[in-house]
Amino acid sequence: MGVLFTKRCVLCGAMLPAAGTGKAMLCPDCAAEVRQRYRCTEAIRIPGAADATAALYYTGKVKNAMQRFKFQHKQHYADWFAAQMLPLLTERLDTWQPDLVTFMPIGFLRMHERGYNQAELLAKAVAEPLSLPCQATLRKRAFTPKQSTQKDAAARQKNAERALLPRKNAEVRGKSVVLVDDIITTGATAAAAVKLLHEMGAAKVYVLAAARTLGK
To answer: 20 near 35, Cβ under 8 Å?
Structure first.
């Protein structure tokens, strides 16, 4: 996604040395901090999913970088986040045996404002090195209230289930599907997507996220 974008650290914005960095996107200090502080090592449970995992904790510099990725047109950050996710998928290929990779959809208005779906960028970036097909299978229902406005977990789950619909001509019947998301917070949206994919005929659904909130 562009050599020019590798000149600054994704997490802190520091200039990277011109020589010897190759495609490096982190300064040495931030690279060490990722290993020591941000690498997610906890299991994640998403109702209905056969398994779920996330690469990073959504806090500190990672949280700030994710927000820039989503809201400040830093599409090239997808390369770095996907690089954190790809080893998780690679080491699970034998158990997950994925047939395709899909992603959480965003609404029409948000897509129009932003110009891209960050989950789609991540999904394509992790699918391509493994020669896995990446397909849009879900869509967002128009005028769905934001999850952040829901008063409790039950309300978030109900709202999330109403928010998603199958895409026309999406074919997942009998397949093992990897669902890619950017952030897992309560897990309600991911659970709703997993449920819908099963209703569409998916044999198994796995969730792969770039980050998860602390205490999920």
So the answer is: no
Q: What is the pTM of this model?
A: 0.89
Measured CA to CA, the distance from residue 96 to residue 80 in angstroms comes to 23
Q: Please state whether beta strands 138-140 and 164-166 pair in parallel, antiparallel, or not at all (unpaired).
A: antiparallel
CA distance 6 to 24: 6
- Residue 22 CA to residue 24 CA, distance in Å, equals 6
- Report CA 190 to chain centroid distance, whole Å: 10
SS3 44: coil
Give pLDDT, residue 152.
59
d(CA 95, CA 133): 18
Q: Judge contact between 100 and 135, C-beta under 8 A.
A: yes
Task: Please provide the size of the chain in residues.
Answer: 216
Mean pLDDT estimate for the chain: 90
Instruction: Give me the pLDDT at residue 1, please.
Output: 41
